[in-house]
Amino acid sequence: TKTQNNFIEDYLNFRRLYLDIILESEGIINGGTCESCQSTEGFFRCLTCSGEHGWCRTCVLKAHQSLPFHKLQQWNGKFFKDTSFSELGYIWYMGHGGQPCPSSQEAMHDWEDVHEGVDWTENNPGVNTFTEPTLTTTPLIIIHSTGVFIHNVQWCHCPGSSVHQQHLHLLKARLFPASTSRPRTAFTFDVLDHFLIDALECKTSAMSFFQKLRRLTNNAFPDSVPDRYRELMRASRQWRDLMNRKRFGFGHDTEVNPGTGDLALFCAACPQPGINMPVDWQDHYESWLVMQRYVVDGNFTAQHMNMKQPHLDVTLSDGLGYMVTDADYQAHLSSAKETKEQSSCSNHRAVNAANTNRSNLRATGVAATACARHGCFVPHTVVDFQKGERHMNVDYSICNAINYHSDNIETSLIIYDIGCQWCIHFKDRINNSPGLSLPEKSRILTGVGKFHLSAHKLPCFARFSLNFIEGAGQVDGEIMETLWAPFNKISPTARSMSQYHRQEILDDHMRDSNWKKMVGIGETLLKKHKRAVKGIDDTKLPFDELTHTLDPEKIAIWEKDEKMAMELRGDHLDIYQLKIDKAPTMAEIRLTLTESETSDIERPGSIPWIIQGINLEDSQDGLRSDVRRLPHDATATQKAALQEKRLKLAVRIAKFHEIADQMMEGIELDWGTVHVDDPRFCMAEADEQAWEVSDEDDSELIDEEIPAEDMVIWMPSSLTHELANVLGLAKLQEEELALRKGQANDCLEKIRLALGQKAVIYRQYFRSADSVWTGTRSKQEAQRCSLKIEKLVRSYQRARSAMGRLGMDQQHLENIYQEILPEQLTVNKDVTEENRFGQGSDKLAWFWRVDGAHKSQQHAWMDEFYRVNWLKAKARWRRWEEELTLTRHEMRWTISWFHHQKSQWLRRSMEAMKSGHQAYGHRQVLLWQMFAEDAEDKFKDHML
After folding, report:
1. Dihedral of the alpha carbons of 269, 275, 279, 281, in degrees to the nearest 10
2. DSSP helix, strand, coil percent of the chain (3-state; round to 5)
3. Which pTM was predicted?
4. Residue 153 zone, left/alpha/beta (φ > 0; ψ -120 to 50; rest)
5. For the segment 157-170, what is each residue's pLDDT rounded down to a tens digit?
6. Residues β-bridged to residue 445
7. Rg of the chain, C-alpha, whole Å
8. C-beta neighbour count of 220 within 10 angstroms
9. Of 44, 301, 779, 864, which is most buried, counting CB atoms within 10 Å of its CB?
């Protein structure tokens, strides 16, 4: 198989020949003889027609009677020079299918061509040409997808026809007028379609698109081409509005005006009673299947500037698409009350920025609701922010979503990155806001997306995790992030538009996003099905194996608790959290040991001495880190600072060993511990760009031969447990073991906090960085987090290694103080994606579950460990089971949705009285029939 480079190499062999052929095509054709009449000089050619053709003036016009947008050139004796149809005398007749108007005086003699005394019609009757416009012709600028053209147009003069109908004559010629009275500019339907597709797919602005057309017309002097940028902006809005009404059937259903969201496309696979499922769906489906599953998110890139004269703005589709009706929304905002409250969870940017305001902006961003499973925007749910992401804005979007096509659907799952705060007073806000309403018996389940959940406080994990919501299936709740990415490209263009123009642009891109989701829904559901089958295989066996090893009586109790938690939710979901008291910190252990030390007069002062040794190990670690980050071309100042640190640390180590000698009372200390840092946890230091010695006093120094960071430090853990018993140092080892547990507990807690902080930095600051300076600062903050995490891991490794030498049993080391692996420190994998493949029955990094345990609580802790892991393993398996069942039903719902669209168009085509309306209706019937047949073919082996 050839690669791209192979094809390029093949081209190089023919490059000179290619160039020669291209240059030869610039010469005169057929020796200058007209290929049609063979009797006249063929000095005209067309760049748009395929092949090489040489025509005379009469023949070229005859060949292009119905091709007015081809580009012509004329041989001037030396080369081909651009010319135009208007220069050759071409007249475009309006009102009679391109034929001259019978009522026009010029039409009495058929089509004529007058050219400075030369009768071009002699022997060439029927040629539509004209040299100079008469009183009945009008120069018209026509914009086509290949450039800007100027044509001489002759209007219809039939009785009853007037200048007020000229724009209608243009429409019948598939030309869209730039104005309704005496139009002098028109756009071909083709160029308007091109612009809309370019804007949707390539995010091309109107200015860039028209500049492209000017360059296609005259690349050397584009400014000589008439500027119709403003006309394009206006005509494209009108064309978009017409196409939307046509595609949604309002050209047929003329007696019905579109209502809220009627010009919007929604999801084909989501359950919608009366559309893709029976109205009496309760008799056919379990309630958890027919649940609305929505995700809500805000986008602060989609801003809008204040308008100078907003009262002059004209709307074409206010509230008919995805953005809400402005008047109703403003009425809601004026009546709703927003309480200024700081987040009680983590420092969420959305809540704590609620009071921010920018005086030059009418909207600081938008919020939208989309189906969580397929990523389709919900019609009439997109709202503007005024002062940050306030609950009153999001409430309006969510209520509209819940009320959309929700006949008798009582349960709605709302996934929101700050759902833990939003849901607290949601019902109160509904009751106190006349602009908000929910269906009767509505039940709201709140979840938090899996990435955002990693930055929440620990209690949120169980209460808002999608893993513990019955009927949620397998959704990550982060699909809105993928939907916002394309919108961020158009936000700068829409920022300065008028309010309603911006509304139409956002609606159009959301409509197109949903259309592409619908086109690809077949492949999407097949992938979901394949993934669900694999998910069940990966989770059911580990769950069954775990169940078989546990006490059935305990499992029965856990199942009862699980059932209650699913029904009552709230703090009942805390069954998924460990209930053992938090592991003691090193400071707490030190206090306990110090209080008990008075009863042990054998070696007073041993606790502070051991703690000093642990601190010295941390200082050596910090100094080794500084040494590794020292540049190869370090300055004398940097080297001196490092040397000073080493000297100070060497003095501290010497004093520590003096106390050790006193503590041992003559026992020879020939052993010591030298720590070697794990290179897997020194990776962040390699990314450091700047180097400086830390300001902490407990860092580093050098001896005459051995650097301070490599000096041996004698600790009770330097001895084996057996030798310590022989030497009578067992008590010291017990004390160090207790302190080492505290050290490990402290490290694990700080690692969790640092990982959460790093996730917040990546999610909030990198995404919203609006300058190079902000982005650089964010990167530095993330780098500092990485350095801190690796330092804590190295400290934990030293504590764990010491505990092994101090006689901790292997069960504790394997189950409680486990080894930390580099891949477990990736926030977006092990913390936020608990359901990814390849991790057996334990999907969450162990240190996010374990708080450590007191020695006296070992049995109770192990019982808790198995209880929580069993519940989580079951939840993972159940969500995959739900995913498979949901996907199979969604396949059926998708086919039903296509058939519903087909039936709607079949009705319209049967009711239509005009042939064009009937033809378009039948074409739509065939389109939706093809969608349905394609889906049936793809899903035939998987549907329920």
Report:
1. -20
2. 50, 10, 40
3. 0.74
4. beta
5. 888 788 888 999 99
6. 413
7. 38
8. 6
9. 44
